[in-house]
Amino acid sequence: MLITVDDLAAALAGPTPPVVLDVRWTLGGPPGHGEYLGGHLPGAVYVDLDTELAGHGEPTDGRHPLPDVDDLERAARRWGIEPGSAVVAYDGGGNLAAARAWWLLRWAGLTDVRLLDGALPAWVAAGLPLTVGDVVPAPGRVSLAEGALPTLTPAGAGAFDGVLLDARAPERFRGETEPIDPKAGHIPGAVSAPTGDNLTPDGHFRTPSELRDRFTALGVGDGKAVGAYCGSGVTAAHQVAALTIAGFDDAALFPGSWSQWSNHDLPVATGD
Questions:
Q1: Mean pLDDT value across the chain
Q2: Of the residues 49, 88, 89, 230, which is catalytic?
């Protein structure tokens, strides 16, 4: 599910290069399209997380609800994805945003979807070339169908019979601060598991054994259900990616996450 910069460079030079998606995005920041135009991986198509990787609804749906699968299919065709295409996603660092594309495309039925380990900084550090300007590929013909990966509703998250990981910063989990959503705290019974701990200081995923040790210490185990949520369902996808690398393949994602939970009359826990 990961690809190194060297292996991606070789694949791009081969006869059937993968579709490469640039998913640069920052919570509360400007869209990443400007940065993309200034330099991106050769052939990479820009993906707008807010408009193409999320739906739009009421606050009770959360800030980044799942897109309608027909809308996602139209976007995937715009990106040039064909039936059987290999897809690689990356972002500006750590793959915290790119993991949303990785998860969504797998949820919609694609199987050959990978993340560029180390993301854009690893490509640049390797001295590999960037290109500028928009890439507009020929439209693809991929067909998508929802439901290939498990998800949780608010009711399912509240009654989850397993380990429910909260991927937000510890101070948000404890309820000491809440800069975005209407309530501070966490879902009762959840375990704090900040997404940043999945990564090395240079933005690569930790090794499978390191990640397995991390999640095992948090109570995750083979045969035990595990789910993940965050603020709005974006970095929770990164948690699912890290769990997959660690060998826990059936982690469920709560797409609405805290942004949905906190907009309903549901119980809130604070502290550790």
A1: 96
A2: 230
